[in-house]
Amino acid sequence: MMLSFRCFLFSTSSPSSYFSIFLPKPHSFLPFTFSQKLGSYTTSSSAQSMPSKLLFRQLFEKESSTYTYLLADALHPEKPALLIDPVDKTVDRDLALVKELGLKLVYAINTHVHADHVTGTGLIKTKVPDVKSIISKASNAKADLFVEPGDKIYFGDIFLEVRATPGHTLGCVTYVTGDGPNQLQPRMAFTGDALLIRGCGRTDFQGGSSDKLYDSVHSQIFTLPKDTLVYPAHDYKGFTVSTVGEEMLYNPRLSKDKETFKNIMQNLNLSYPKMMDVAVPLNMVCGLQET
Amino acid sequence: MMLSFRCFLFSTSSPSSYFSIFLPKPHSFLPFTFSQKLGSYTTSSSAQSMPSKLLFRQLFEKESSTYTYLLADALHPEKPALLIDPVDKTVDRDLALVKELGLKLVYAINTHVHADHVTGTGLIKTKVPDVKSIISKASNAKADLFVEPGDKIYFGDIFLEVRATPGHTLGCVTYVTGDGPNQLQPRMAFTGDALLIRGCGRTDFQGGSSDKLYDSVHSQIFTLPKDTLVYPAHDYKGFTVSTVGEEMLYNPRLSKDKETFKNIMQNLNLSYPKMMDVAVPLNMVCGLQET
User: Which residues of B touch A239 (CB under 8 A)?
Assistant: First the structure.
């Protein structure tokens, strides 16, 4: 028998509660303060006693070396799914995979306003109209829903929590799988360009700040359990995943002290991103020109 | 206290025993027939009561779109590791990662004699002399150790079993993580070029045969549990993993009947691989010119 319940995105009142809040099933969230209602699903009562099971796919777009991530609750009857950092050029591939896997795509999410590719979120919405786009409120970009630090994004019984990790851009966030008895172990951090494998995003445009980036990574990512899997928005050397523990030890920039890090970032002498003047304006409006 | 035990690669007497053999720890393998002794390690007695834990990394080489896989037994005190299908150009990256992760690289393994890139096995052996190279006996290539169908390759308490999957080349094998109470769930199949995600390797050179490839995939890979993860040697569209169940349903070539498959393969009209005349002779000798 199918029982209806609601799927919420809600704020916690204090950043310190990231780790301490007990995370019951979405339908029993009444003690918490809801900030936004994101949709409705159905579930079976039997599924509620089963552990969550993540269906996970990492997808690569070669031209911009971008990773898109597909996550779904495979035990939920509707298999609600989300895409993190989809790219316009690979939307058809991603949606075909969603269909083949029998998933219901619910959210298309960005970690930040990208400067090196056009987001696929707008295109996805034209092809699957029920999908809601999500980006941080701090990004000042357009989307259907805006998240703030401490918000939780549920898909089925699994959730991502939102952590503010500005420094590459002002509005960068990291999405981290939740902490709790029915959540995933080890946790997974989708770090965007804040933390790359053995690297990090540049800090010389879009409100970037090496000072802020250092604080973001050290306070919001390096405080996660060391076995937390790090899934960045890009990789240029063929790495697919790292861990918090590895990056704390071996990241050639962020394992250093703050002043050394700031010096490294000030002396990168990077060229102007060739896609920036096209990508940023488009990404500020979800990847589609306003009509 | 450290107890020494041996790490073996051994043959089973019958292909039908792939699924039925009870797989105890390597040190209690005496009832079985050993075919080759591959090295020695140490372990702690406490580790023997713990489940095996795989450390796994998928690594990408952009030019040939090759995936290299790093696997290690993270619970074993020595963290014995192996690399599947390393590429010469990314050997330094791979060995640096092995070092950072504190692994002891034991084997460098090929699924087949590649025609599109030079294997990294020879170069790895010059940099880490204790590493043993492995390839199938049927490949007729040079290596330290040769495997045949039914052989098992142990690294710590985890093993790969060898399945013959000819058709792309005569000597292609698929390495599958073992079946057993202490082995990995879901299983993982490293399919080389026999089965790609929504595709397969060409069958028009190196002893290739579309007839053989169809039989190989259907008898040796599609008979695995449907949730078995498929990790191919290449992907050209940005996919990183699939499952046996998915490929049985959605592989545009191998989900068809045999005659249709053979017709598809006969009409691909592919160009001659640009690296073939360099790569194949080198790969027949483990990636290094003989001195």
Answer: 57, 59-60, 97
